[in-house]
Amino acid sequence: MSRFKRYVIFYIISIAAFAILAIFVNILSVFISRGISTNFSESLLSILATIAGILIAVLASLVIYYQTSKERKQQRLFESEVHQEKERFLRLSQEELELEKQRTDLEKQQQTLLWLLAAVERINDDPRLAIIIAYQGLESEIQNLITRKYLVDTEDAKQGFSISYNYDMLAEYIDPDKARAIMQMRDLRNRIIHGEVSPEEITEDKVRGYVESAGRIARDISQIGQFSEA
């Protein structure tokens, strides 16, 4: 029932009650004016008072009912607003988390792009340095993944945290073929540092392929880390 209809019914009942009361008052006045006995008049007045009391009680009940209905409606409206605010807060929180993830992902992509560009610039004039730069960037991403897996949260701990890795450890987190490729890259990097690599191993095409492969694997590892944090 709408609010307008409830008020209409309330006013109709009120008018009817006062009309009935007015009729009884008029009847009583007529009886008194015609000289009806005092006892009968008192009885009629008592009945009238009782009816008036009942009508007043009914009206009071209606007033209380409509007031209670109004308060309940306000309470429901308040609860609905609170619920909507909670949903809005949760939605904003989720959007903030999503934006933070996107920002972090962009920062990772930027870091990867920087060392990739640095390595590419060295392919022609210093292929050995290009390989070292590429592997340093890849190894940095590997350490980030291991750090997240070991839940090293504090910044001080991250700065001093480093763990050696081998094929078996890498294969627990990434594709075995990629883990095998990383170990081969590390072996080549180590032999370059110790001067044990032949010129045939570091031709322009091979070094370029090495750098591109390091970039792809680094991006894949970055994505693995992103999903584990979600």
Report on the structure:
The chain has 230 residues and is mainly α. The chain has 2 domains: 90 residues; 108 residues, no CATH class. The protein is built from 7 helices and no strands. The radius of gyration is 44 Å and the shape is rod-shaped. The two termini are 49 Å apart. About 5% of the residues have low confidence.
Q: How many domains in all?
A: 2
Question: Could you say which structural class the secondary elements and strand pairing correspond to?
Answer: mainly alpha
- What's the overall geometry? rod-shaped
What proportion of the residues is helical, as a percent range? Answer: over 70%
Largest sheet: none
Residue ranges: pLDDT <50 for 5 or more in a row? 152-162
What is the N-to-C order of secondary-structure elements (H for helix, E for strand)? HHHHHHH
**Average predicted confidence as pLDDT:** 76
Count of helix runs: 7
- Bin the strand percentage: under 5%
Determine the N-to-C terminus distance.
49 Å
In angstroms, what is the radius of gyration?
Answer: 44 Å
Give the topology, please.
Layout: H1 3-33, H2 38-121, H3 127-149, H4 155-160, H5 167-171, H6 176-193, H7 204-229
Short description:
This protein has 230 residues and is an all-alpha fold. It is built from seven helices and no strands. The protein has helices at 3-33, 38-121, 127-149, 155-160, 167-171, 176-193, 204-229.
